[in-house]
Amino acid sequence: MKKVMLLVVDGLAPEYFQKDTAPHLFRLAQESGFYKTVLGAMPSVTNVNHACILSGKWPEETGVVGNYYYNPITQEEGFIEERGFMKAKMLLQEYGENHGTTAFFTVKGKVLGVYGEGADIGMSAQDPDQKLIRKYGLDMPPAVDSLDSTRWILEAAYRCIEKDSPDLVYCTTNDYAFHHFAPGTIEAVQQVRTVDAYMAEIAKLEPQRQIYITADHGMNQKTRIVHFQNIAQKAGFSVYCLPPLKDRYIENHIYQEGGMLYVFLKQKQQAEAFYQFAQKEPYVQQILTKEAAAEQYHLPIDQIGDYVLLTEKNSAFGECEPDILYTQASRTHGSLFEREVPLLAIHPEREKEAYQYSKDIVKYLFKDK
User: Fold this and answer.
1) Cα–Cα distance, 354 to 346 (Å, whole number)
2) Which of 138, 154, 181, 208 is deepest in the core (most CB within 10 A)?
3) For residue 37, what are the contacts with CB-CB under 8 A and spacing of at least 6?
4) Which residues contact 237 (CB under 8 A, 6 or more apart)?
5) Which domains does the chain have, with CATH numbers?
6) How far is CA 285 from the centre of its chain?
7) Residues β-bridged to residue 181
8) How would you class 7 by CB atoms within 10 Å of its CB: exposed for 0-12, middle for 13-18, buried for 19 or more?
9) Is residue 65 a contact partner of residue 77, using CB atoms and an 8 Å limit?
10) Using CA atoms in the order 99, 138, 53, 318, what is the torsion angle rounded to 10 degrees?
11) 221 phi and psi angles, rounded to 5 deg
12) In the prediction, which pLDDT does 254 show?
């Protein structure tokens, strides 16, 4: 099996990842690969894009449409944190079926819980395997909501490659740094330089290993948070609004704020009136029926409500008081404006022009393609 490493740097907008912040990686890309920007899947949130990157498929095939789920029939809802939600075959399983060895490293425990099936080695900074800590000579991990968690998970991946050299290594950070620090800040620059240093060492350790570095989504400042469920209900509409970004890690999402919303109508006869209402709201850039959203963004039609709403660039849907909150304290994602992500490849499977989406990395690594 080919030696491959995929690093997904959570929240790494292209503005963060530049030649001056990652000089070693850009040099390696120039020598034996490429750098470009590509598009992730919508909504631009963590679970959705891990599913797409790991499988090379769109959400209509992965079945993952957010970090949170809602069943309108049973009214069951909750965080997506365990196995059973991912419907598409992942590269981990492809490697396993072909006698390849695999390792999965993540800061957040939920990512390993949802997507770690088939990994021979699995480690999260949130709930670390003590045997692996001893085996790789690691210190105990820092808090998930810390700048140092990126360094720790990259150190774990490096030591695993050094000692065991798995055929496939999937590694992901978390987006604490980029939720809190804008491009150009000391903290953000240091995060990218940490990635640059570790990945350059991994490339030196195994010079022929294919390496892909991308992100699950970008990140932008939002100055207007909108509690759309409250606003719609006060206007007379009976709805359940599901923000696909909704996450247990409230350190990163103070208001559970994101740029996309699934709206479930409890009274279907309100459909046309609701459409006219939502269309006039100044923070709504796009309102789509579930049929149009499924077609445009490759989403499973039975999981996205009756309407899908997207915000304009400076707004986000959230859970806040008052119903419209103006703030300087939110950096978040989920909208079309965080869909663009970097892709840096070393010894890639295909030429630069072949990669249009982050999911294309694994699309071309599958044997059946």
Assistant:
1) 14
2) 154
3) 14, 340, 341, 342, 343
4) 265, 267, 270, 273, 274, 277
5) 4-218+339-363 (3.40.720.10), 220-332 (3.30.1360.110)
6) 22
7) none
8) buried
9) no
10) 150
11) -70, 140
12) 87
Question: Which pLDDT score, from 0 to 100, does residue 27 have?
Answer: 98
- For residues 364 and 351, give the distance between their C-alpha atoms in angstroms, rounded to a whole number: 11
Map residue 140 onto helix, strand or coil: coil
Strands (E), 292-339: 307-311, 315-317, 324-332
Q: Strands 307-311, 284-289: parallel, antiparallel or unpaired by DSSP?
A: antiparallel
Residue with tokens 């999402």: 253
Answer whether 349's CB lies under 8 Å from 355's CB: no
The two three-digit tokens of residue 140, written as one number: 């105990």
pTM, whole model, 2 decimals?
0.96
Per-residue pLDDT, 368: 54
Give CA–CA dist 320/257, Å, rounded: 9
Which tokens go with 254? 């103070």
Amino acid at 76: E
Backbone angles phi, psi at 141, to 5 degrees: -70, 155
**248's tokens:** 């247990």
Compute mean pLDDT per 10 residues along the chain, 369 residues long, and list them: 96 97 98 98 97 98 95 90 93 95 95 93 96 97 94 98 98 95 97 98 98 98 97 97 88 89 97 97 97 98 97 97 95 97 98 98 83
Greatest Cα pair distance, the chain, in angstroms, is 62
